[in-house]
Amino acid sequence: MTTVGRQTLSQAVSAAMLERIRSGEFAPGDRLPTEKKLMEEYGVGRNSIREAIQALVTLGLVEVRPGRGTTVVAIDSAQALDAETVSGLLKEEAVEDLYAFRLLLEVEIASCAAEHASAADLAEIERYARAFQFAYSQGAPVSRADDEFHAALARASHNSVYSTVLDAVTGLIANARRLSERVPWALERAAADHLQIFQAVKAHDPDEAARLMRRHIEAAIAATRAGRLSLTSLPGDGTVHEAGSPDD
Questions:
Q1: 82-113: string of b/e by CB count within 10 Å (b at 16+)?
Q2: For position 74, what pLDDT does the model report?
């Protein structure tokens, strides 16, 4: 049995698992041991194991799928973070703080975009809103279209600082956002939100654009929390329970 110290227990387990992934013991495509096996290996309880797995999902290192358990995904050297970095990034409060800042930032961006967007800006915003909708309808990855939609709004604000800061925040929460994509209602809701935000910006209605963006980011926060909860409430076989939307 491999015992771990208290960083917390879950942080220590996630750091230990990360090292095993980095060393090649678990290669991309490999399934991690079951919860029961990991509990025995590390001498910790089920909650600590689930929190550790959640942490690795947040960093984009593993994925959990119904009926398949937990599988290692391909990583490059840029993702091979050390244990100290992992412990800092995986603190739930850090993600919550970043989302709180993103809420303030993007509401103001949407308002300014509604005031200052040119015809070219509007065409770009609509293009990425439609791209997100199409990718979602095809079951394809949506993250690039999502990032580009929000970046296009920032450019339409005609405030270069907004674009720079949004890009930094988007990078910091990129892996945490994977959690929201696990939630059944999240992508459909986001696709509809994007089109509604575009329409408010096109109408040059800053108050409505701000209101819709606030609702959109609050839904994203709720989806991320629901995704996190689905991981911490996994049954022993690794299946994922669905969570309702904030409007349910």
A1: eeeebbebbeeeebeebbeebbebbbbbbbbb
A2: 66
Q: What angle do CA 226, 38, 181 make, to 5 degrees?
A: 25
Pick the CATH number of 9-83 from 2.30.110.10, 3.40.190.10, 1.10.10.10, 1.20.1250.20: 1.10.10.10
Residue 202 sits at the vertex; the CA angle it makes with 198 and 204, to the nearest 5 degrees, is 120
Question: Which pLDDT score, from 0 to 100, does residue 141 have?
Answer: 86
pLDDT of residue 237: 41
CA angle 156, 94, 149 (to 5 degrees): 20
At the fourth CATH level, which superfamily is domain 92-226?
GntR ligand-binding domain-like (1.20.120.530)
Q: What is the mean pLDDT of each run of 10 residues along the chain (248 residues)?
A: 55 81 86 92 88 78 82 62 49 73 94 97 97 92 92 96 88 70 85 97 98 95 77 45 50
Q: Is 92 helix (H, G, I), strand (E, B) or coil?
A: helix
Q: How many Å separate Cα 185 from the centre of its chain?
A: 14
What is d(CA 163, CA 121) in angstroms, rounded to the nearest whole number? Answer: 14
Structure-derived torsion over alpha carbons of residues 221, 227, 233, 236, reported in degrees to the nearest 10 = -170
The alpha carbons of the chain give a radius of gyration, in whole angstroms, of: 20
pLDDT for the residue 2 = 52
Six-digit token string for 242: 């669905």
DSSP for 125-171 reads: HHHHHHHHHHHHHHT---HHHHHHHHHHHHHHTT-HHHHHHHHHHHH
